[in-house]
Each structure stands twice: as C-alpha cells, then as structure tokens.
Fold this protein.
Amino acid sequence: MHGGRSPWLGSAQRPVSLVRESLKCDALIVGAGITGSLIAERLTRQGLDVVLIDRELPGRGSTTASTAMLLWEIDRSLSQLTEAYGFERASRAYRASLEAVAGLKSLVLQFGLSCELRDKNSLYLAAGYTAKDLFDEHQLRARAGLPGDFLSHQMLLERYGVARAGAIVSPGAADADPVQLSLGLLRIAVARGARLFEGEAVEYDAASRAVCVGLDGGCQIEARSVILATGYVMPSIVRSNIQTTSSSWAIATRPQPQNLWKDGTLIWEDSKDYLYARTTLAGRIIIGGEDSDRAITPEARDRLIPEKSRRLRQKLAALWPMADTEIEFRWAGTFDTTSDGLPLIGPVPGAKGVYAAYGYGGNGITFSFLAAQLIGDLIAGSGSPLLGDFALDRDG
Ligand SMILES: Cc1cc2nc3c(=O)[nH]c(=O)nc-3n(C[C@H](O)[C@H](O)[C@H](O)COP(=O)(O)OP(=O)(O)OC[C@H]3O[C@@H](n4cnc5c(N)ncnc54)[C@H](O)[C@@H]3O)c2cc1C
C-alpha cells in the first residue's frame, strides 16, 4: 500500500499475535489503519466487545504514506458539489467535514495522544492565471456558513510570500503524525479490551444472524457487526460504480525551521495533478502530489519515485524559492477516491451486519473520523442524512 520511506516510521513496532482459534465478538474490524483505529476507539467507547485484524502491522498501509493534512475542504469544491447535488446536500458534506476535523482534534486533546497534532490554517491556491473561480467558491462557502477569507494575488504575496493569482485561507484544519495518531487510538481501544490480531480476511458470509469471516489460516470470526476498513483494497462483497484508485508521491526535506512559510499553513492547490504541502514539528517541508490513476501496482508506482521526487522538488522550488530542497524522505502510496469526491460510508448493500468505509480521496483522515462516528451511530441504532449522501451504492 506504500513504497519508499515516509518520516513517520520512527520507532519499531511490536509484532501482533496471529489468530490461532475461531472467535466471537460484537464487532470485527478488518484493517487497523487510521480508519480501523478510529472505529475501534468509537466502538469500545460504546461498550462493544471488539476484535481487530490486520494482515500487516497496524498503521503500515496507506496511513504510513499519508501526509496527514487534516483538511475539512473536500477534493471537490463546494461549487462543484453544488452543481452535482444542490446547495443543501453539498453544504451538509462540507459542514460535516469541518466538524469532523474539530471532533478529531478534541479526541486527541481528550486522550492526550502524542501525535504532533497542531491547529493549522489552510491555504487553497489558485492554480491558473485567474482566481475568479476561487472567489466564487469563497462566496458560496460564506453562504454555507463556512469560515475563510479570500486573498487577492497582492494580499497572498504580502501575507504568505506565495506568488499565485489568489487563494482562500481558512481556519479549522490541522496536521499530525498519522502513524502515532493511529497507534495511539489503537492503544486506547486495546486498553478498553479490544483484541488486536494479525490475520487476513478472505471470505465473508452474511447469510445468517451473525456475520462469519473466514481467515487465511482457516480460523473464523463470528461477529454481529463487521466493519471493513481495508484502505483502497475493497473485498468483492463491496461494489461501487464510482470508486477508483490513485497513487500519490511525496517528499520531505531535511529540517529547516528557519525557512518555513508563515505559520506552516497547510497549502494545497486547485489543479488536476494536485499539489499539497505542509511542514512538520521538526521543521521539514513535505510536498506531495503528481497523482496518477495509471501507476497503481506497487511496482509501477514505486518505480516512479525517483522521477516524481525530482518533479516535486522543482515544484517546491517554484512554490517556495527560499526552501532548501535537499530530500531526506521520498515515498509513494495508493488511496481510493470517488468520482464525486465524497466518501463511501455505511452499510454494505445485500450483506446484513456488514459496514464499510472507503473512497476518501485526499481527505482520508477527516473522512475516517466521520466514518467512525456514522458507523458507531448506525450500530447503536441511529442514522443521519449523511448516510444517504455517502451511500455505497450511489451512482455519483
Ligand atoms: C501519498 C499520500 C498522501 C496522503 N495525504 C493525505 C493527507 O494529507 N490527508 C489525509 O487526510 N489523507 C491523505 N491521504 C489519504 C490517507 O492516507 C488514506 O485515506 C488513509 O490512510 C486510509 O486509511 P485506512 O485506514 O482506511 O487504510 P490503510 O491505512 O491502507 O489501512 C488498511 C489496512 O487494512 C489492511 N488490510 C487490507 N486488506 C485486508 C484483509 N483482507 N484482511 C486484513 N487486513 C487487511 C491493510 O494491511 C492495512 O493495514 C494520503 C494518501 C497518500 C497515499
């Protein structure tokens, strides 16, 4: 799910024990990345007996590759979403996303998780010669009650030293170390009694009252609810007409705290091949993008790491000329995305008791939080209009 080396894998992880016998539980979570960890925290908080399995070490999937910009702004602009679904539904998704980042920050504070979480503003840059679309986007956001200010070329240059046609600067975002965030949440769930194992789910049987999941070693886990949190690899019981996979590449410079832009604001760009940049607590600059839906196999994706790193380095030099662009980490990862930019969260059609959380695009961690909340509520018996908006069988 990722190749190369990201800055997040500092400390060695203890291996997790294998599933050696068949088990029963209230809820089985398949996948222990950021999604599985958030769901485990949520369901153990609801008092459920939870089992988590992962075929690799927890957090070593796309979560390790994430640049962990916790943005509430969605890959599709509010204007694009409004065009597709109307203003009410589009603004509901944006407001839910804004609340999700706030909820995630409160969770980290509440448990004192050590994951380098920092409150940040975000800077959404115009990619072309004009910022007209961004200005219209800003006005629509204001109508939806979303926070943020429009910056003209001149204001952007004066405040941030970035030369673009314009930007929207918004409060309410954050950044973090995604692996420490994920492992911290897992520790909380395990301390509450969740059982974490190494194991690969290979079969799902949802025909009886409980869901039965077959593992590669032959054992089975029976659960009243099964939550699929397997990153971009969707098992065959989940079908979506609007999901695709994409690869993204990133580099991190050596620490240069004296060279960073104002407040280490999160930067991203309104462009097809995407560009996103952040800083770290140690003063590194991380820049990523160059997304492609063609180089998906790990071999094809990782072969491109040298070339994509060179391009990202050039883009960094153009974006922030005073940066020391010497690269210390370079890596790539795959994630899944949807044609409308909204996630796939909720019950799996035709499989009673099975829930799934996929299709996050660039808002992986924000939407993971939302998934934990929505699926937790569903299992507890309550719904939300967002479940219709994010339905797995929607056509987009
Ligand atoms: C380069 C890059 C940059 C990104 N930047 C950002 C960003 O700035 N902000 C943001 O919010 N998002 C970002 N994302 C997206 C984000 O990283 C992902 O959406 C998020 O990590 C997905 O988490 P997950 O837990 O769903 O999946 P994963 O982390 O991939 O975890 C899934 C887990 O499921 C396990 N698994 C799979 N199949 C099975 C099976 N059959 N049985 C058992 N276990 C299984 C895997 O081993 C894995 O550990 C980025 C992604 C990439 C690649």
Summary: Residues 133 and 278 are 24 Å apart (CA to CA). Residues 1, 30-36, 53-56, 60-63, 65-69, 200-201, 229-231, 233, 248, 250, 288, 333-335, 360, 362-366, 368 surround flavin-adenine dinucleotide (CB under 6 Å).
